[in-house]
Amino acid sequence: MAEQFDIVVAGAGHNSLITAAYLAKAGYRCLVLEGRPIVGGGVKSAHLTLEGFVHDVCSSAHNGIHGNPLLRNDELKLGDYGLEYIYPDPVFHMPFPDGSYLTQWRDLDRTCAEFAKFSKHDGSAYRRMITEYETVKPLLNAVTFSPVGFGKSLNELLLTHPQGKIWQRRLAMSAWEILKETFEDDHCRAFMMGCPYALQPVLDPASARAAYIPLHQQRESRPLPKGGSGALTVALARFIEAHQGTILTNKWVNALITENGRCVGVQCADGTSYRAEKAVVSTIHIKQLVDMAPRELWGEDFLEGVGTWEAGLTLFATNYATSEPPKYLTSGGVLSPVHSGFMISSERAMRMSYDYKSGSVNTLNPSLHVICCSIADPSRAPAGMHTVKIVAYQPYQLREGPEHWDLIKQQVSDANLKVLRHFSPNLTDDKILARTIESPLDLERMNPHNWHGSCHGGGSGPAQSGAMRPMAGYAQHRMPIAGLYQTGATTHPGGSVTGGPGRNAAVVMLKDFGTSVEEVVKR
Ligand SMILES: Cc1cc2nc3c(=O)[nH]c(=O)nc-3n(C[C@H](O)[C@H](O)[C@H](O)COP(=O)(O)OP(=O)(O)OC[C@H]3O[C@@H](n4cnc5c(N)ncnc54)[C@H](O)[C@@H]3O)c2cc1C
User: Fold this and answer.
1) β-strands 85-86, 92-95: how paired?
2) C-beta separation of 369 from 196 below 8 A
């Protein structure tokens, strides 16, 4: 006999936990089923190397979610459940092979001066870019944090902006077109594309938003949850449990239970099943979800969309326990930032798109993102020790097939460390206590929602964005099977730690249940 709940949630990433949290606050009895031993998906922390070293398994910086009403308006008061953010300064440091460097500080004047070291024009251009962008950011935010069709479209909103027509054009351009026009010096252009790389091919049409991402962190830094990235999902889990929700781990969902064409529950790989009185919410990747119910229930258009769904760009990560942070030499002395990285030129950024397409692994001059959270948050490591993560951008599909990663991952990880040591020579072998490596294939094995290694659910080109995510006609989180809703990175506004898909799904569901998110938050 299956256990009965109002809502059954399949998968416990930060998005589905956010959906569950709003539904639990509304008074619905929620059950969350997570396949892994701990909740959080790409937003969790663990002792990956040695006892006492708290590593972020995937994400570290929570930028996007700071624009979400969940945090912006403190709708669920997650601080009461242990969530607290740290805002590192400097924000990002990038040394270049010619010995120069560019540091982004939270102080705008100081950052403009860093750009002006390379070109006076570019110092002014950076200031102008952020000033202009901040007039349009509230409109972009409104679209990001509304379900598709629940508010005005971006083009409608831009009609209210004095430079709306200019922005309409800009946002349809590629990131490279924007940066090439704005900056004249190649260090400045490379910094904007690699601080860090936005996981979007910079030459693609409509990739312009990637060019503006560094401007978000100028004001907000790259916020770190105190104690580890997982502090967000731990707080959400505590919230759900405090509102009569149940969370079960080690529960892989492998089938949807359907009756008379309606989804009424789920079945797990261990033979258990759970029924949902009102709805099932999934954050299972759409590529796997369609195999969990009879094909005729999905409809031809949905199946065609899933069949042609493309994975996005992928990551390769190595986590280290160290006895020192990375140290970079600057004119002001030694600098140890939380975030640093390398993008040797704008040409390298453009070639990365080709490397992905052709399945080539670059180990000579890879773009890297180095994160040392323990500098700003000493609770992450034993006294005087550090956690260092080197994130590289490498394809899942190698010419030899993805399984080839198991043969080459140590070599690729070593090559990345060599690049870091070129800029930060202090991290010698004796400072490294342990390491773990996650290739794009490992990331998929760890979390099937990282389908084909893509930690953003899939690419975010025009065919998979906005009203097309996951596909036309189904962007409002309601799936073709009645009673089934989808959240997570395969839905609008896509991947990263924004919580957008999670809150947007809650908005739709609460409306379908005859109430609203505003009403629930007020209670
Ligand atoms: C190395 C790395 C670094 C990153 N760094 C950042 C960063 O600094 N900032 C940022 O914003 N983003 C970052 N990201 C991306 C970010 O982590 C993801 O986009 C985000 O976590 C996606 O969240 P989600 O809620 O959509 O799903 P996920 O986090 O993928 O969660 C899905 C959950 O569902 C579970 N699940 C899947 N299928 C089933 C099933 N059949 N049954 C039961 N459970 C199931 C999974 O185990 C998982 O817990 C990074 C990703 C990686 C890999």
Assistant:
1) unpaired
2) yes
Instruction: Using the predicted structure, report yes or no on whether residue 240 has a pLDDT greater than 90.
Output: yes
Question: Looking at the DSSP assignment, which residues form a beta bridge with residue 329?
Answer: 334
pLDDT over 80 (residue 3): no
C-alpha of residue 452 to centroid of ligand 1, in Å: 13
CATH of the domain at 390: 3.90.660
Please write down the HEC assignment for all residues of 479-508: CCCECEEECCCCCCCCCCCCCHHHHHHHHH
317 found inside a domain = yes
- Residue reference for tokens 């990880």: 413
Instruction: Give the C-alpha distances (Å, rounded to integers) separating 393 from 145, 263, 358, 361, 438.
Output: 28, 38, 14, 9, 12
**275 shares its domain with 381:** no
69 in contact with ligand 1, CB cutoff 6 A:
no
In the chain, the percentage of residues whose pLDDT exceeds 70 is: 99
Report the pLDDT averaged over residues 205-214.
95
- Mean pLDDT of the 112-119 span: 98
Q: What's the predicted TM-score (pTM) here?
A: 0.98
Give the domain-ending residue among 169, 187, 221: 221
pLDDT class for 48, splitting at 50, 70, 90? very high
Query: For residue 253, which atom of ligand 1 is closest to its CA?
Result: 42
Does ligand 1 come within 6 angstroms of the Cβ of 70? Answer: no
Q: How confident is the model at residue 2 (pLDDT cuts 50, 70, 90)?
A: low
Q: What is the per-residue pLDDT for 523?
A: 87
Tell me the best of 92, 248, 447, 485 to mutate to test the pocket of ligand 1, counting ligand atoms within 8 Å of each CB and taking the most: 447
